[in-house]
Amino acid sequence: MRNWQSCFLAAVGFLCAIALGIATPAAAQSDGTTLSADVPPHAKLASFGVVLGLRGKTATPDGLPVVLTSEVRKELLEPEFRFDGFMVSTIQMESFAPIENEPDAYRLLGLIVFEDAAARRVHTEFAAYYSVTDTGIVIDWASARTRTPESATILWFAVEKNDHSPEQLEPKNQIGLMRLLETSALKAASDSQDGEIVIYAVSMERFAERDMPITTATPSDVSASVFDLGGWPAAVFTAPAGVQISKESNTLELIFPDGRLLERIDSFPTPPNLFK
Q1: Is pLDDT above 80 for 239?
Q2: Between the chain's N and C termini, which has fewer beta carbons within 10 Å?
Q3: 36 pLDDT tier (thresholds 50, 70, 90)
Q4: DSSP secondary structure string, the chain?
Q5: What is the pLDDT of residues 56-104, one digit of tens each?
């Protein structure tokens, strides 16, 4: 076994816990972190290298024995998003194979699931071509993008429009909306007064840009729009107080651009019990 492989097997838990946010092996069973057992250590190491690239970090001699070329680092890095505050909860190896006629060269497909303290999630699918050398791993090519989950968690809640300034009601970021949910969500339609109410639908998963949903509202007196908050969609419905949302007549919906239904409510949204 190469020296770097011995070091990797001995230190991967410690290095990942510090540098990548992956739990150590002792905690892996409880936090959901999984790495396919039927792939060699160098494939797992390559996936950790992809995480480094997504975070905008560069492997160093005292870190993981993996090197990303400058082209790979540029390809993996998003213009603004750096996964700050997001821990790696799962790495799924979806495809692994040697590259024909190229000794010690492999291709890897996988999915990395990140999660932060607010339970927001990012599903990032990646592909990587890499080489195994005497000193470690060299990732020669890699690409990654957000994968929109087929079933996203959507939080619905309503607030009294007159109780808030326009600045408070405008969705500047997803965390701000979570605070609005925590502090101001109406528990029932009867809690609203004579003014308008604002109903929010906030995704807990990051969406690919091409999958940003659109809205429909059957009540004619409800206006709706969707905001892209750094990849997290948030729909905003403005309705008169006492609006009737019912299965028989009035529904609020989020729909994927291809027409698939993402989420529908047919009753007044009661706030989820997230902060108790």
Answers
A1: yes
A2: C
A3: low
A4: --HHHHHHHHHHHHHIIIII-PPPGGGHHHHT----TTS-HHHHHHHHHHHHHHTT----TTS-SEEE-HHHHHHH--SS---TTPEEEEEEEEEEEEPTT-TTEEEEEEEEEEE-TT--EEEEEEEEEEEE-SS-EEEEEEEEEE---SS--EEEEEEEGGGS-HHHHS-S-HHHHHHHHHHH--SSGGG--SSEEEEEEEESB---GGG--EEEESSTT-EEEEEEETTEEEEEEEEETT----SSS--EEEE-TTS-EEEEE-SPPPPPS---
A5: 987 655 577 899 999 999 999 998 898 999 999 999 999 999 998 888 9
CA distance 109 to 103: 19
Mean per-residue pLDDT of the chain: 82
Whether 160 and 193 have beta carbons less than 8 Å apart is answered as: yes
Q: What are phi and psi of 4, to 5 degrees?
A: -65, -35
Mean pLDDT of the region 208-235? 88
CB–CB of 31/89 below 8 Å?
Answer: yes
| CA nearest to 44, candidates 122, 96, 105 | 96
Q: Name the nearest CA neighbour of 50 among 14, 10, 92.
A: 92
41 phi, psi to nearest 5 deg: -55, -35
pLDDT digits (tens, 9 = 90+) for 249-258: 778 989 999 9
pTM equals 0.82
Contact 106, 132 (CB under 8 A): yes
Structure tokens that stand for 205 in this block? 């998963």
pLDDT of 192 above 80: no
Determine the longest span between alpha carbons in the chain, in angstroms: 74
Radius of gyration of the chain, Cα coordinates, nearest whole angstrom: 23
Give the pLDDT of residue 151.
85
